[in-house]
Model the fold of this input.
Amino acid sequence: MIQDIETIDEFLAHRTDDVEEAVRTAAATEIMPRFRQLAAHEIDEKSGPHDLVTDADRKAEEFLTEALVKLLPGSVVVGEEAVHANPATYEAIKGEAPVWIVDPVDGTRQFVHGDPGFCTLVALAHRGVLLASWTYAPARDQLAVAVRGRGALLDGEPLRAGSPAPGRDLEVATSHPDYTTDDQKRALLGLWTDGVSPRACGSAGLEYLAVARGELDATAFSWEAAWDHAAGILLVEEAGGAHLTLAGEPFRITGGNALPFTAARDAATARRVLGLLSGGA
Done:
């Protein structure tokens, strides 16, 4: 098992291209051949009609689980579908081993409907600290990579989130009301005010990418499943952005966050969105 951060840094210095290849191969072999080709028996519901899983999700996660552990011996994988099958596996995020956090198809609903707005998310963390992430939108052939302290890239070009233009309404992607508690609904209502233009979010991973690109000013999410947020949180950070929970603290992938939380293009925008959420709470 890898015991020290220097060993993981060495891995990140030399093997990020191998992780990229694994992500691209998973998409090419297990996801894209099923895009707009799914049969009814390849789609199942999990918690309800808006929470779907497909053979693409399952097969891509199986592929990535094998490939990533082989690349980094001693590491473990926390994948959305494996956690659905055995919730106890989620606890590995809090463990001592390096952990890969995987969402094989983020935006499964879009994938099922033939919409290209989905992506594969992979993040590497150790002792609760995010170290690297890969966000791949295969239908658009876009790959964003972030490594802690080394910046963020989209298709090899540096990503900078920048800051919103003064005087323009903030564009904020928010959780759908179906996925919020009454208290969270009240908090999110704080965004329905002058100077803010809220809308329902799509794929969380692609919303984070939009923030990192400066195309979206902020997100406001009410759930904390690490596979939805880990890759994007680091991507936004390394592009110069910030994230805060309702308690005024950075989002923690290990859980226990005060929700909703925001990720934004810069710290000032994060504080502004947090103030609106706190006012609604």
Summary: Residues 1-5 have pLDDT under 50 and may be disordered. The CA atoms of residues 188 and 218 lie 13 Å apart. The longest strand covers residues 129-137.
